Amino acid sequence: MQQFTLNINASESIQLTGFEPSTTAIAHIIIAPAMGVSQLFYHALALWLSQQGYAVTTFDYRAMGSSQVKALKDYSLDILSWAQEDCSAVLVNVINQPSKLPIYWLGHSLGGQIFPLIKQIAQVTKVITIASGTGYWKHNVPALRRKAPLFWYVIVPLLTSIFGYFPGRKLGMVGDLPKHVIYQWRRWCLHPEYCVGVESAEVRQQFSQLQVPLTSVGFSDDEMLSWQNMQDLHALFGTNNKQLKCYTPQQVGVDRIGHLGFFREQFKDNLWPQLLLPELLLSQSGSFQ
């Protein structure tokens, strides 16, 4: 495991961690985190993947985890900045490595929503998303949907205006987020077409013209996303080479998975080899359909 810094612009950088296999790598996997989740959360999976022969890169968006270097209220970036600048820089860094391995984008939640906006995303071999869907509030799971109006119309505007950022960690909601991130996400979650419904025509075009092979994996017991949320997001991706799979915990012999569970080390002997490795091996054999 090796940690290093990647410059985003003249004054800002993000922190990355690289995991190398003990033998020649099969491919390179980039794990893109969920909103408010540190790259540390993905290190158990990254280490396991390196033991299966893959090189892996994890990272923190600016203002998140180890990439936060100043008070959150002092950041002016938004989600598009994370996609077009942070994620793009990470991908270009991997593309430019001399090994020239096949590259996989493994996106969790937000990391699996924004990948069409990444520069040179067409150069990846395949995108695999885990627990990704739109956040459109009227399609949230019932428990979350009941709370959504209070959250988006009262809690977010009020607390963000008071603190200069969204103090989600104190509330057990999402995590602490820069103000432009939470305000932009609010606009997305209040629109039926999520990000493509409120951003520029270029954003809609990037989604609709996407051609990279894609497998989206969701779970029936996700406490954040409904099956409709997952379907809504999947429909936004223009590629014809895509699959959407929803698993119940019972199908894979476990009691609970949820929105975050897939990445926990407790699943290294079942979910990871059963659900993730086949998606990687299908692409490597050239038989992805």
Protein model, in words:
The chain has 289 residues and is an alpha/beta fold. It has a single domain, classed as Alpha/Beta hydrolase fold, catalytic domain (Rossmann fold, 3-Layer(aba) Sandwich), CATH 3.40.50. Helices cover 35% and strands 18% of the residues. It contains nine helices and ten strands. The protein has an eight-stranded mixed beta sheet, sandwiched between helices. Strands 7-8 form a two-stranded antiparallel sheet. The chain is globular and about 55 Å long. The two termini are 34 Å apart. The mean pLDDT is 95.
CATH architecture: 3-Layer(aba) Sandwich
Mean pLDDT: 95
The proportion of strand residues reads: 15-25%
Side by side, the strands of the main sheet go: 1-2-4-3-5-6-9-10
Uncertain regions spanning at least 5 consecutive residues = none
Measured distance between first and last alpha carbons? 34 Å
The total count of helices amounts to 9
CATH class: Alpha Beta
What is CATH's topology name? Rossmann fold
Tell me the structural class.
Answer: alpha/beta
Whole-number total of structural domains: 1
H/E element order: EEEHEHEEHEHEHHHEHEH
Helix content: 25-40%
Shape: globular
Task: Give the biggest sheet.
Answer: 8 strands, mixed
